Amino acid sequence: MSPTPSPPVPAPLLQAPVRLRAWVRGSEVALVLLAALTGCIGGLAVAAMSGATQFLREQLYRLPPGQRLSSLSDLPADGLMGAAFLAPALGGAVLGLLLLIATWRRGKAKRAVVDPIEANALHGGRMSLRGSLDVAAQNVVSNGCGASVGLEAGYTQVAAGIASRLGITFKMRRSDLRTLVGCGSAAAIAAAFGSPLTGAFYAFELIIGTYTIATLAPVVVAALCGSLVVRALAPQPAFVDVGALALAKNTAVDAGDTLPCLVLGLVCAGLAVLLMRGVTLVEQGFRVSRLPAPLRPVLGGLCVGGLALATTPQVLSAGHGALHIYLAPEVAVGLGALAGLVIAKAAASAMSIGSGFRGGLFFASLFLGALVGRLFAGIAPLFWPGFESFGLAPVGYAVVGMSAFAVAIVGGPLTMTFLALEMTGSFPVTGLVLASVLASSLTVRKTFGYSFATWRFHLRGETIRSAHDIGWMRSLTVGRMMRKDIRPVTLDTPMATFLRAHPLGSPSRVVVVDEHDRYAGIVLVPEAHARAAENGTETPRLSDVVRYPGSFLLADMSVKQAAAAFDGAEAEALAVLDDARSRKVIGLLTESHTLKRYSEELDRQRRAMLGEAA
């Protein structure tokens, strides 16, 4: 596959002064201050998006101020045009219009907007701010109309996009720009959940791809600033306050409770994989239908609205209100109703994302995991003798299931563990959560291999599995490393003439072309002289000593692909062609030079990751 081109990033409207840029590039303190600014802006963006979506829901569904859509038991009769279930379809129509406008603005190239993970993995943290704002607006419309998508994807997109633009303004180094993008994402998640540790480790595990001392201070400062800004602007309790709830029965939680939590983690992993595949099947169904992309959200909205009308409004939107309901210990829900809600919410999420609504599965996975945890606590005693002797209460299993399901979808075992810790304040329960998320994460990685974000990259033909920086590897192409000062000889050149023109001691490899100037192979000069000496009076032809006629490199191959080609051909050097059809020779590359350049880049990346001077 040819390398993915970097997204077009326009020159910043404002360039920071030269001295200020130099200070930011050379000072860790400056990076921390810029991270704090990024965190504050990220918190503002989260507050603005959250307020906008709540306003939309209140207008479309005639909700009282502050009322959560998914906390309703029935759709309001006085909703949109007297039929509230049409609100998602209306939102789908607006979203389709926004998609058309965004496509028109991007022009004929129609490049997809990269998210923070892809930006850090392939583009050194470079993101389009305009594209990120487009995604945020689409996410607000999608969530505000009731589609079963979360806002976390929009939060991180716009905060990371702003961070990237700040970094580009200051002309930051690649490693520092990637860190700043992580700071934006950390601030967004910390602000969304009121959990700074969760936001910080979200950045470390999912956006930056690693944890180092050099990235600790800026990321944590950004997460704290984002969380504080939202608390100041919109004072409200944590997204789920379970600290005062009874997570355990009368008996103390001990190591024996790890066993059911491990089983619950495996169950959540299996269900999460089914959900991810379900989203893919819905997307494929819409593509096969040949329905224009802008009209797909309208149909998807009708399906989601109809599902809410037929089952419960708790399948709508992200599910904040419904999650509060099912984490309350006094709520008594039948096992059949719980199972039905799990199926309905999963179907609504798959239909929403599969039809083109913008958003992610972060909060939906938390809600589904809480439901699965409570369902597990109700079903397990029927099949597991002695299950009642374990110490966790149903609410405790809901917290464990919430984290295990979310880690299977989103990834980030420590992120979900810290989320549970900041929610509950209970270290014993957090230990059980850690065991469950490890079981879930390991199961998904070994059986499925992807989180939801990286699975969608895979469907697009990308090989990204994390935010580890591999963009430099793709940019280190054969075309950049090859020698261009080569003089091919024709295949019909007499051997004697060739030997006189290329005596021993001259360059040891000569590229050969045919009468149509097409690549024909490589002649090793020492081998040609040896063959001529062995045959005595019978001079061999040049074609007798040509090697690697079917092995060659292309200019857009990455260093990794080049190394594989050398191994496959068992060659120390290969010709570089402009195209496999024309076979015109444009250069020569040796394996030793390839490995040297690869080693140099690896060392440079290692030093950048450790925060050492370049």
From TrEMBL:
Keywords: Chloride, Chloride channel, Ion channel, Ion transport, Membrane, Transmembrane, Transmembrane helix, Transport. One of its GO terms (cellular component) is chloride channel complex. Pfam families: Voltage_CLC. The keyword Electron transport does not apply. GO terms for molecular function: chloride channel activity. The chain crosses the membrane at residues 29-52, 80-101, 180-202, 208-230, 259-279, 331-354, 360-383, 395-421, 427-444. It is a multi-pass membrane protein. It is found in: Membrane. Signal peptide: none annotated. InterPro entries: CBS_dom_sf, Cl-channel_core, ClC, ClC-type_chloride_channel. Its main location: membrane. The keyword Membrane applies. PANTHER family: CHLORIDE CHANNEL PROTEIN CLC-E (PTHR43427). This is CIC family chloride channel protein. It comes from Methylorubrum thiocyanatum. The lineage of its organism: Bacteria, Pseudomonadati, Pseudomonadota, Alphaproteobacteria, Hyphomicrobiales.
